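Format notes (please read before filing issues)

Several people have asked whether sequences and structure tokens are stored in separate files. They are not. Every record keeps both together, in the order shown below: the sequence lines, then the token lines. Line labels are part of the format and must not be stripped during preprocessing.
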Amino acid sequence: MAVSAPPRVLTIAGSDSGGGAGIQADLKTMLALGVHGMSVLTAVTAQNSLGVQGYWELPAEAVRAQYRSVVDDIGVQAVKTGMLASVTLVETVAELLADCPAPVVVDPVGVSKHGDPLLAAEAVATVRDRLLPHATLATPNLHEVAQLTGITVLEEGEMRPAADALLAHGPRWVLVKGGHLPGEAADLLAGRDGEEYWFRSPRYDNRHTHGTGCTLASAIAAELAKGSPMPEAVAAAKEYVTGAIRGGFALGAGIGPVDHGWRTRH
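Then the structure lines:
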């Protein structure tokens, strides 16, 4: 009996040996949301609940070969980017995505949950100038907003101007994540044509939040691959990651991961 394939989503990101973020979080999220996850590995990290002890980039030709292997044979309905590490890898991925027919979700990863750098300082401008123009959606947290625009957001009212500054660099949509502000976890989805949508969720008293950014971006990509319009895709992804944060569990001696399988346990 023939079985049709589910929607296909490609993640271009680094590996997290602890399993909480990066490629591992992306693929767990995609499985949980009913899409087929595929991967292009950009870097290998030595990482656990305490932080990132080191990382090693893959050669640009390895990244290019992985991408072409998957896209030219299997095809994609959405792409998500995460840790890209260096100027060379950012440029390589930007070139590959220049003619990508599917939606592209760019998570402009700058540092880990523990504050360890995952993007070379000199690569920030390359992300802004070369990668963001190919993004259907960019999903920066407030630290990444400051890195990319120089704007420090201290309250919700400053999130729209920050989003506009990012939109000026070319993405169709920007999701400014306000999780580092006090109060509710409020995120702003802003569009190039003036659209504005707010998404709010309770803030849970749970320190085990490793992988939230990767998980949210991957969930949005999964929903886009299934055909949802952007606001609906973000709403569904926000609901999924909120449940994953609520279910986050202790692992090791530091910050544990969110629970990607929370729906199967509740």
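For reference, the curators noted about this record: Residues 173 and 260 are 25 Å apart (CA to CA). The helical segments are 22-32, 60-73, 87-97, 124-131, 142-149, 159-167, 212-225, 230-246.
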